[in-house]
Amino acid sequence: MSRSSYHPTSVQACHSIADLRSLAQRKLPRVMFDYMDGAAEDEVSMQRNSSDFNNHALVPHTLTDVSSVNLRTRIQGIDSALPLLFSPTGGQRLFNHAGEMATAPVAAEKGLIYTLSSMSTYNIETVAALSKGTKWFQIYVWKDRGVVKEFIARCKASGYHALCLTVDVQTSGQRERDLRNGFTLPPRFTTSSLIDMALHPSWWWHTMTKPRITLANVIGKGELGVNTSTELGKYAASQLDPTVSYDDLAWMIQEWGGPFLVKGLVSAADAKRATDLGATGLMLSNHGGRQLDHAISPISALPAVVDAVGGRAELIVDGGIRRGTDIIKALSLGATACSIGRPYLYGLAAGGKPGVERAISILASELKRAMMLLGCDDVKKLGPQYLQQR
Asked: Rounded CA gap, 23 and 359, in Å?
């Protein structure tokens, strides 16, 4: 049976991230699935994020003892059960009513780092109380620097381990699926949405009966205190600052005073400069292809960044991870770890917390099996000897 003809009906019947995506597509209204799954313009960047892993072939080493395989590593000084972490993703309650209340606990239970988005649907304090695992907070340089200072203070008070600055949002990307679908938050009731209600009754029921979906961290910051999702979204978009510079990065690193990562770099020169200013980690990312289309993929950018940084900052490949073999390739090229966004969101949409658990279990199982077949018993031993450029 080909992958395209397999349609799982439960998360336990999903055997790959692609299966979870298939189930999520059937569980969600089209407008919400496309918002999660889509990217900018022709979506070339998003496609290359995954397909560029195919430029590297694995070279198995045989007659090695792989009866015990170590998948554990350290990321920003913290033990992690896998060389994998949860990327920040906003608006999670759009995909399942539990939102971050389902995803953050899974990260803690699986021994992984969780990154909370500034645009989360539960706030900094709520997620801190919910999950005792290691948490990072993703932040922007807002035009109102007072908001930045407030977020930093709240994260310190709530015990977040690291701050992660996203730098590739000088303006919003052109996501044409959303434009064609007429995406709004909250959803508008139209003839098509009424038809969709009949096709996805569970999603609509939870949307209408659960507390209103909002951007929890920016409540009260819209003009005149308006707190509807639409107005908060407009406020957040208006705060994107195209004047952001390395001076702002240096200020935020000093203001935070702890582990600090920069997310959205793919340029070796940018990576070196950020490291020179004190960034302890870099998340190589093109925002999942949702900002600049035709941008270089993180896995393709990795070798030059490795050379530029020279081991002075940890490197995390963010984007395109769909298989355990993708993680192996990234680590073999010099990454410290990988991060995922859509894979765990597919799980969330497919089945709530059990779906997120399934997404991590699939990737962990694939990673262990591929390590055994590769003939490598420890993820920290991965290197160029296991790869061949195609």
From this structure: 12
CA distance 240 to 384: 39
Out of 61, 161, 206, 287, pick the active-site residue: 287
What DSSP line would sit under 201-270, residue for residue?
HHHHHHHHHSPPP--GGGTT-SGGG---HHHHHHHHHHTB-TT--HHHHHHHHHHH-S-EEEEEE--HHH
Supply angle C-alpha 180, 184, 189, rounded to 5: 95
Q: What 8-state DSSP symbol labels residue 336?
A: S
What mean pLDDT, rounded, does the chain reach?
92
Question: What is residue 21's predicted lDDT score, i.e. its pLDDT?
Answer: 98
With H, G, I as helix, E, B as strand and everything else as coil, classify residue 370. helix
- Environment class of residue 204 by beta-carbon count within 10 Å: exposed (0-12), middle (13-18) or buried (19+)? middle
Domain hosting residue 76, numbered range: 22-382
Look at residue 35 and tell me if it is in a domain: yes
- Vertex 313: Cα angle to 311 and 314 (nearest 5): 95
Whole-prediction pTM value?
A: 0.94
CA-based torsion, 256, 259, 264, 265: positive or negative: positive
Show Cβ contacts of residue 68 under 8 Å, excluding neighbours closer than 6 positions. Answer: 377
With both helix axes pointing from N to C terminus, report the angle between 44-51 and 298-309 in degrees, rounded to the nearest 10: 70
Q: The tokens of 107 are what?
A: 């990260």
pLDDT in tens, 242-253: 888 999 999 999
Q: List the structure tokens of 261.
A: 């990562």
pLDDT of residue 218: 81
Rounded CA separation 195/313 (Å): 51
pLDDT tens per residue across span 56-70 = 999 999 999 999 999
* Kind and range of the H or E run holding 51: helix 44-51
- Based on the residue annotation, tell me whether 294 is a catalytic residue of this protein: no
Give the domain CATH number at 60.
3.20.20.70
Question: Has residue 13 been placed in a domain?
Answer: no
Mean pLDDT across 131-160: 93
**13: CB partners within 8 A, 6+ apart:** 19
- DSSP H or E segment with residue 347: helix 342-374
Total tally of structural domains belonging to the chain: 1
